[in-house]
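In response to reviewer comment 3 from the previous cycle, which asked for concrete evidence that the modeling workflow produces usable outputs, we include below a single protein chain processed end to end. The sequence was submitted unchanged, and the resulting structure tokens are shown without manual editing.
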Amino acid sequence: MPGSGPANPKDDVESALHDAVCSGQVSLSAAQSAIATNWTTALATLRVTPSPRR
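The workflow returned the following structure tokens.
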């Protein structure tokens, strides 16, 4: 069912980076670069901790 949860693990990374950019924790360009370089290490690279799922 669409919208019932993340379709893949990358969704959680994108969501955490979205929150970090919107809160001013990281710049948009840094988030874009980190996810383009290697999305599996983007959160660690930027030292972003994902917030609990809503």
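The mean pLDDT is 89. We consider this sufficient to address the reviewer's concern, and the full set will be provided in the supplementary archive.
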